[in-house]
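Entry 14. Ran structure prediction on the chain below.
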Amino acid sequence: MDRQQFLILLVAAVMMTSFVLLVCWPQQRELTALGQALEHERDVVSQKVLASNEGVYVSARIPALRMAQEVFSRWLPPEPRVAEFLEAVAERVAAEPDVAHEVERAEMRPSGLSGTAPAVPLRLRLTGPFESVYRCLAAIEGLERLSRFRQVRCVKSENAGCVVAEAEILVFYLPGSDRQTGPGGTSASGNAGPPASRRASPMHARG
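Output, structure tokens:
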């Protein structure tokens, strides 16, 4: 190889190196940076899609959660609502025409669940044929409202074929479990609360 060929090869090598350093290397760096940016954007989009899916799931669950809260409110309301309970008792007793009933307040005696949850103590008296009285007690015990039969006493009545059953009942409630109400006493779920006249009704009922 003569000197001229060597110089040509040297110049070609220098030009190739310059091309790599000045053109290819910057493009490679730009492509790497672009790939990292795309990876970051993909992660951001994935997080947004995941959050969107979670939002859709929560939105779909809201009606079920509201329904569950309404059921819970009927089961354990934020206030005693004794008048409503007495109406439910009267409806159950009315199904047995030969049974008379009487309800009055009783003294609170802390024991068991009554020591940890607020409750209104009631004394229920039923008079009538044994089978009818038994059906009334079973129906009252099966009411949706959370209550507890603490004691039941049954004796013969002066009337032939009848008995007198006395039951102590605790009607529970949970203060602070209600939601913010809107105009007209309507709760956030759209259910109107009991009228003041019903809440102030007397604690005595006869059938």
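The beta strands are 100-105, 119-128, 147-156, 163-172, 205-206. Will compare against last week's run tomorrow.
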